[in-house]
Amino acid sequence: MRDKKEELFLLLTLFFIPIGLAFLLSAKIVSLQSIKYIIMASPAYYIILAGGINSLKSKKVSLFLLVSIALLCSYSLKNYYQHSGNFREDWKEVADYVTLHSKKKDIILFDAGYMRSPFDYYYRGNLPRHGLLSREGLKGDEVSPEVKEVIEGYERVWLILSHNWRTKDFYRELMSSHYLMSGKKEFLGVKIYLYQTYQERARPDE
Known about the structure:
The chain is α/β, with parallel strands linked by helices.
């Protein structure tokens, strides 16, 4: 009996700790709103599921559950491969595009700062790159001074949006309210907006 309790404790630990850590990191550091970040909990989940089905006395009920699970998995896989949002972002194309169209007095901003890593992997240019504050409930007067300070002295800003679940279009709207958008380009899972900082948008009362 003691061995079974220890096994159950180990399974539950392997199942809940990865999920708990993912939620904790998502709330405190970076957004981890993706199933891939808790995939390490799947072995424990499968063992618990298999043990539950195996403990059933009725073979018909067990077979019904197995078929139901297989159908649900098939439906999930169908959705996964049909929706482009589930595929990896094409950062090579993004980096090549910015490299081709960039100028000396440009700066690159990332809504989700941790998205700079996959961009830097392919980027061969030397433009400065900066990750913006990424959390829910941001206000314009809260971040506008920081953004203006970061882009001061640069003539153009490349705003790259990807994995911006928390801020949505906040930074695009913020930049568009102050500066003129001179270009935009959309790639798989990534949106790019180019702004002219030397042409600040006029206020309605000016």
